[in-house]
Specification:
The complex is a heterodimer. Chain A is of the alpha+beta class. Chain A has 17 helices and 20 strands. In chain A, strands 3-2-1-4-15-16 form a six-stranded mixed beta sheet, with no helix packed on it. Chain A has a five-stranded antiparallel beta sheet with strand order 6-5-20-19-18. A three-stranded antiparallel beta sheet of chain A has the order 12-11-13, covered by helices on one side. In chain A, α7 runs antiparallel to α17. The radius of gyration of chain A is 27 Å and the shape is globular. The N and C termini of chain A lie far apart (99 Å). Helices cover 71% and strands 3% of the residues of chain B. Chain B is mostly helical. Chain B starts with a helix and ends with a helix. In chain B, strands 1-2-3 form a three-stranded antiparallel beta sheet, with no helix packed on it. The longest helix of chain B has 34 residues. In chain B, α1 runs antiparallel to α2, α3 packs antiparallel against α15 and α13 packs antiparallel against α14. Classes of the chains: A alpha+beta, B mainly alpha. At the A-B interface, α1 and α2 of A face α9, α12, α13 and α14 of B.
């Protein structure tokens, strides 16, 4: 039997060598594995770094700071605290031991941990390590305007919805609010409390950032895009006349105006400007049929639909707006696959994020140019030196300046005498557009308001959306948008 | 230098290593652990010196490396367990005492291990009974998807570990009796007669049945591999091994179809990154632990094994995944050293088998050695992702009373064979 036993020993030798080889393979893969989320080695190493602080745009209000915790074995961990709680929970996100990270905490992790490939940071980190000092990360100054953010959160508090405020000329995000919100401190302390949060809607989904990742039917706010297409292509002018019988005929079927505009005969003879002012579906339905779905979608693309807004949040927290089919983004090759009439007034499986609709308003406000939205103003090294400054850059050239001017005039009329008189600010000209997307269930309307002000030299553009509403965009969302715009405009006084 | 003096020196070396290990855990975690840790090494050394004295008395010619190898592996396990959870290490220490006591009792009271040949069928049937015990309602206990434990009053144990040793003894006896018939077979096809092959097929069927009952993949793999190794040793017929493997794969494939637990394990092995927060969490965490150790490891007590709340990132860290913990804290060097200790154990064990002059001793020594080697391969292969992960202990190292006691009994038998072999060889 000895030959067999000898061979067996060889087999076992081979198997054990294979084990050592496998362990060696994992060692070789270590640099790649180290960076993976969920690798406790990485998480723990980062806990030993004093993360940079996150500030509001004033550079003083701290949104995220650290708490020192000494472990039993003498090591020091820096755990995150969020002194303002719910205020900017979605934009700032959280960084925890148990549940990884979200928001800016995730996307700016390299800066916050000082591991970004910047020469001075690398030298600092190396010196700190040599001296045995705690490694410090870089501070982040966001663009969030404290007053606008607070106003938005308070105004939204009792509803499910979101609000986004932008500076049209720069793309700076002044407010990014989503409700129901959550206290990011609880993510680590007691996650069950977050799971129990209830809101005006079911599920409450407090962790979802409705402002950037929530997809809603834009309804009549999308008429701004359709009107832009109608004017920019030269197909129509603000004075072009239409006949409104109260409905529009599509595929042999009548598509009626919004149910509150219950005049059976419709508005009769109206101009395009009047159709925007009163949000007349039948007119836009006919414009859509005339332009075709392809042209309307082209203009939607020019405003940023079908593209992920380059906000500094993690890409899975910023949704792409556009037509959706079976939960997937969908750009039809054959225009006949889309109902152009219903598309023109923002129905027809069209979904948009509040951020995207704010970008539409900002694009019109900024002479037709959509700026890249940005949440970060600058990154500061621990010694206060600027590591990186986030400047303004163009994202999309949506429409001609003349088209933007015509749209501004029409949207100003909406607030002055149309569907959104509740958004009027004394002494300031406001341009806006309401939206009320009917979901087919009473009291479950999805209301919208997009606006910018002052109309002639815009400082702020906003989008507000609320779900599960009984009222219209003009009565529910417009007052909130007004409050946010007032908060922004008052900062200079 | 006599064999026993060599063993004593080896044990002294093991004692030094153990002391160094506990001292380094103490230095790294002195906020958590007390100076009592240093007494572990002294206690451990005293225990094995006692074992050494009995071996010197009763088995003067036994292999001088096997006992120190078992002791060193047990010391490595105890040190790492101590680092993970001092309370568990205290219990593991007690189990090592019980294991060494069982070892001593075996050596002192079993006059001649060949007496076991006479009761092999009793042992074989006992093994089957032990294997079936956990499946009995009332006393069986299921942990992590496998029904492996028996829970009687204050005692929870894993009868499969003891069954492993009994199966080896039974197979050594049975194959010695029938190896000629199995080797040459009858008729033109050289197929063994059903009379001789039957019991073997029965064993295969039994292993599959037990696997089905208990969901114990690792155990089934272990028993079946021991069986094939011993069958090959006895008959030198690769065709048996090939046929056996084919049958096993067939059975495994059938089980794969019906047991979701098996499917998860195989799919997790094929693609560990498919569900790192769910099904493949354990394997992925184990791989992270191994990869982050580097060449020399983080040092005992300095690895990232526990969350701030003291929970281990890898469930079953001190049992199935102890190798991952060792690999992180002692690095590739330490991991390879542990693997090489098993290789050395295999070398010494197979050497005993080759020197033996009777079939029973040869098969017994080969079977016992193979059992330890295969078991080590199955679990280390599992936690490194080389083969599908199946829960089984790392012999001598993992936390667990049944495993420790069974492996020390196994070591005792191997030393008894060794002693007799060397003595008759010189005579």
């Amino acid at each position: 039997m000895n030959p067999q036993i000898r061979r067996l020993f060889y087999v076992f030798t081979f198997l054990f060598v294979a084990l050592i080889a496998t362990a060696t393979y994992w060692l070789w893969r270590a640099p790649d594995l180290e960076a993976r989320q969920g690798n406790p080695g990485l998480v723990v190493r980062e806990l030993e770094i004093r993360r940079g602080l996150v500030y509001a745009s004033d550079g003083r209000t701290v949104l995220a700071r650290n708490r020192r915790r000494e472990l039993e074995d003498g090591r020091v961990w820096w755990l995150r605290r969020y002194p303002r709680g719910e205020l900017a929970a979605h934009a700032v996100g959280y960084s925890t031991v148990a549940r990884s990270r979200t928001g800016l905490e995730e996307s700016l992790n390299d800066f916050l941990t000082g591991s970004n490939a910047n020469l001075s940071t690398i030298i600092d980190a190396t010196l700190d390590r040599l001296r045995g000092l705690t490694r410090e990360g870089n501070d982040v100054i966001t663009t969030l305007d404290l007053r606008a953010q607070e106003t938005a959160m308070q105004a939204l508090a009792s509803s499910c919805g979101a609000a986004v405020a932008l500076e049209p000329a720069t793309g700076r995000v002044l407010a990014l609010a989503s409700t129901p919100s959550f206290d990011p401190n609880l993510v680590e302390d007691d996650f069950r409390q977050i799971e129990r949060i209830e809101g005006a809607c079911t599920p409450a989904a407090p962790l979802l950032d409705r402002a950037t990742a929530g997809l809603f039917t834009p309804g009549s706010t999308f008429k701004v895009v359709t009107a832009a297409a109608a004017l920019d292509t030269g197909t129509f002018r603000p004075t072009s006349e239409f006949d409104d019988p109260g409905y529009c005929v599509e595929y042999g079927q009548r598509v009626f105006n919004y149910s509150d505009q219950g005049t059976p005969s419709g508005f009769g003879r109206v101009t395009l400007a009047q159709a925007v002012e009163n949000s007349i579906n039948s007119v836009f339905c006919n414009i859509g049929k005339e332009l075709g779905a392809d042209v309307v979608l082209d203009y939607a693309e020019r405003f940023g639909f079908y593209d992920r807004p380059p906000l500094e949040l993690p890409s899975d927290e910023v949704a792409i707006s556009g037509l959706y089919r079976e939960g997937r983004l969908y750009r039809p090759d054959d225009p006949n696959q889309v109902d152009p009439g219903r598309l023109a007034f923002g129905q027809e499986r069209l979904l948009a994020t509040p951020l995207q609709m704010a970008l539409v308003a900002a694009g019109v406000a900024n002479d037709g140019v959509v700026m890249e939205p940005t949440l970060v103003d600058r990154i500061l090294a621990p010694d206060g030196d600027v590591v990186e400054r986030f400047g303004a850059s163009e994202w999309k050239e949506a429409i001609k300046p003349s088209t933007a001017a015509e749209l501004t005039a029409m949207m100003t009329a909406v607030v002055a005498s149309g569907t959104a008189t509740s958004a009027q600010i004394p002494g300031v000209e406001v341009a806006g557009k309401t939206g009320t997307a009917e979901t087919g269930v009473a009291g479950r309307n999805n209301t919208w308001f997009i606006a910018f002000a002052p109309a002639r030299s815009p400082e702020v553009a906003v989008a507000v959306t609320l779900t599960d509403q009984a009222g219209t965009g003009g009565s529910t969302a417009a007052p909130i948008a007004k409050a946010i715009m007032e908060a922004v405009l008052s900062r200079n006084t | 230098m006599t064999l026993r003096t060599r063993e004593l020196l080896n044990l002294g070396l093991v004692g030094l290593l153990t002391a160094a290990g506990f001292a380094s855990v103490y230095i790294a975690r002195q906020e958590v652990v007390s100076t009592a840790s240093l007494s572990y090494a002294a206690f451990f050394l005293a225990l094995f010196l006692a074992a050494h004295l009995v071996v010197r008395l009763r088995l003067p010619d036994a292999d001088p490396y096997l006992l120190p190898l078992g002791g060193l592996l047990a010391a490595i396990g105890l040190t790492e367990i101590y680092r993970i959870e001092p309370d568990l290490a205290f219990r593991q220490g007690l189990w090592v005492v019980v294991g060494v006591a069982a070892f001593l009792a075996l050596v002192l009271f079993l006059r001649d291990y060949r007496e076991l040949d006479g009761v092999k069928y009793v042992l074989g049937v006992s093994a089957i009974v032990l294997l079936v015990l956990p499946a009995l309602p009332g006393i069986g206990r299921t942990i992590n998807g496998a029904t492996l434990w028996v829970d009687i009053g204050p005692l929870v144990f894993q009868p499969g570990e003891l069954a492993k040793v009994l199966i080896v003894v039974f197979l050594a006896g049975y194959l010695r009796d029938n190896r000629e018939m199995l080797s040459y077979g009858v008729g033109s096809g050289r197929l063994p007669s059903p009379k001789h092959l039957g019991p073997l097929l029965l064993v295969w069927g039994g292993a599959m049945l037990v696997l089905f009952q208990t969901r114990d993949l690792g155990g089934a793999l272990l028993y079946f591999a021991i069986f094939l190794v011993m069958l090959y040793t006895a008959t030198a017929r690769w065709s048996f091994v090939a046929a056996g493997l084919a049958l096993f794969l067939l059975g495994a494939f059938a089980l794969y179809q019906v047991i979701p637990h098996v499917q998860d394990r195989v799919e997790g092995w094929l693609d560990p990154w498919s569900d790192p927060q769910g099904e493949t969490y354990q394997l992925v965490q184990s791989i992270y632990a191994i990869s982050s150790g580097g060449v020399f490891g983080s040092g005992l007590g300095r690895g990232v094994l526990l969350s701030p709340e003291g929970e281990s990132y890898i469930p079953f860290l001190e049992t199935d995944f102890i190798f991952s913990a060792i690999a992180q804290e002692l690095g590739l060097a330490g991991a390879a050293a542990v693997i090489l200790l098993y290789l050395l154990f295999a070398f010494r064990g197979f050497r005993v088998s080759m020197l033996a002059d009777d079939g029973f001793s040869k098969l017994l020594a080969a079977g016992l050695t193979a059992a330890v080697s295969i078991q080590a391969f199955i679990i280390i292969g599992g936690v490194t992702g080389l083969i599908p992960l199946t829960g089984i202990t790392l012999p001598f190292v993992s936390y667990g009373g049944s495993s420790i006691v069974a492996n020390f009994l196994l070591l005792g038998l191997l030393l008894m064979v060794s002693d007799r072999v060397e003595r008759t060889g010189r005579a």
